[in-house]
Amino acid sequence: MSQPPDLDPPLDAAAQARLKTLSEELRCLVCQNQTLADSNAELAVDLRREVQRMIAGGRSDKQIKTYLVERYGDFVLYDPPVQANTIALWFAPFVLLLIGAIIWAAVQRRSRLRVRLDTTAAQAQGSEAGAAGPAAAAPPAREHDRDDRERARRMLGLDEER
After folding, report:
1. Cα distance between residue 39 and residue 29, in whole Å
2. Residues ≥6 apart with Cβ < 8 Å to 143
């Protein structure tokens, strides 16, 4: 006696475990952020039945995945492979993080240079004001401090030569 086509084929315990594992490795095409095992969408139920039929039919996990990828694309895999067409999906977050870190470092460096430039300018103004008062106690500018100030002015676009 044969089963009607609308009933799911019975599976033994090992095949049930395979079905569960495969359902967790495949994405629900409707929900998109859920596996077939987690989704109750009608399409997910149909795909689970399809996978169950293929397991009962003797297909391997690789054959089942290949069939589903050919039919629905790499998106059906919950963990898509690194390939030319998925490279941006895998590496774009790291590239964006690197760009953000470079921008942050540049802003921090520029801020430190500006503070340093302001401090040395204030010291220079204090020493020009005369020998009286606490400004006169500031140490004289050294040669490398002058070089640093000039470099900072150039980097900040504050060149006095115009």
Report:
1. 10
2. none
Tokens of 30: 């409707």
Got the DSSP string for 7-66?
A: SPPP--HHHHHHHHHHHHHBB-TTTSSSBTTT---HHHHHHHHHHHHHHHTT--HHHHHH
Return all residues near 44 (Cβ < 8 A) that are at least 6 apart. 28, 29, 30, 31, 34, 36
Closest alpha carbon to 89 in 101, 77, 72: 77
Residues facing 35 on adjacent strands: 27
What pLDDT score was predicted for residue 94?
A: 93
Tokens, residue 162: 């115009």
In angstroms, the CA 3 to CA 6 distance is 8
Which residue shows structure tokens 């994405």?
27
For 7-19, how does the pLDDT look when each residue is reduced to its tens digit (9 = 90+)? 567 788 898 999 9
Count the neighbouring beta carbons within 10 Å of the beta carbon of residue 87.
10
